[in-house]
Write a structure and sequence with these properties.
Helix content of chain A: under 10%
Distance between the termini of chain B: 40 Å
Shape of chain B: globular
Helix content of chain B: under 10%
Radius of gyration of chain B: 13 Å
Largest sheet of chain B: 5 strands, mixed
Strand content of chain A: over 45%
Oligomer: heterodimer
Shape of chain A: globular
Strand content of chain B: 35-45%
Order of helices and strands of chain A: EEEEEEEEEEE
Number of helices of chain A: 0
């Protein structure tokens, strides 16, 4: 009965490859996010979708492309992976009806290592 | 830009009360204050949220002074399992990306 689940948990790949991370939430939320946590442990927003529509797109390389097939799923595809993409990627969700202060619910992260 | 400042780390012993203070001088009128807890290899977990005065739940208390320029997360009688990083967030977590950045957080280490 995991609320926000991400797959895979670990991802090791070589530079130049293309990879995807999947996220699903069963909380009935309508807004989902991708965060990146780097080696210094800063958590930064990358993208946000509300009801399948992109509402936040931070300064992220075009190699990163999110896709939301429905409001319960938000996937992240990364092209031409680089060493600097190594990080932990977290998916999160919330319910927009509660307003801008509704708490975020996070998945347990995907640790991406690019060699 | 609502920026938060927290101590980088704190140490405590089991059974003690721990208070972690967060400064947010530029808090806006509509901003709430939200605290998250993160264990290694896990995503942040919501602990408590407040707007003013005091909020208490089964996990923690949140004290917010009248000027709301700071807030204090209080963990009563900590145990080893409370060792984690605690983040303070201020503002609109839905649309305003400048308020969606988690800072360095406070790394709490609880000793037996």
């Amino acid at each position: 009965d995991t609320a926000v689940s991400q797959t895979p948990k670990y991802l090791v790949t070589q530079m130049g490859n293309d990879k995807s991370i999947k996220c699903e939430q069963n909380l009935g939320h309508d807004t989902m996010y991708w965060y990146k946590q780097d080696s210094k442990k800063f958590l930064k927003i990358m993208f946000s979708y509300n009801n399948k529509e992109l509402i936040i797109n931070e300064t992220v390389p075009n190699r990163f492309s999110p896709k939301s097939p429905d409001k319960a799923h938000l996937n992240l595809h990364i092209n031409s992976l680089e060493l600097g993409d190594s990080a932990v990627y977290f998916c999160a969700s919330t319910l927009s009806e509660r307003g801008g202060n509704s708490p975020l619910h996070f998945g347990n992260g995907t640790r991406l290592t690019v060699t | 830009l609502a920026k938060t400042t927290q101590p980088i780390s704190m140490d405590s012993y089991e059974g003690q009360e721990v208070n972690i203070t967060c400064s947010h001088n530029n808090i806006a009128t509509n901003d709430y204050i939200t605290w998250y807890q993160q264990f290694p290899s896990q995503g942040p977990r919501f602990i408590i949220q407040g707007y003013k005065t005091k909020v208490t739940n089964e996990v923690a208390s949140l004290f917010i002074p009248a000027d709301r320029k700071s807030s204090t997360l209080s963990l009563p009688r900590v145990s080893l399992s409370d060792t984690a990083v605690y983040y303070c967030l201020v503002g609109d977590q839905l649309y305003n990306t400048d308020k969606l950045i988690f800072g360095t957080g406070t790394r709490l280490q609880v000793f037996p």
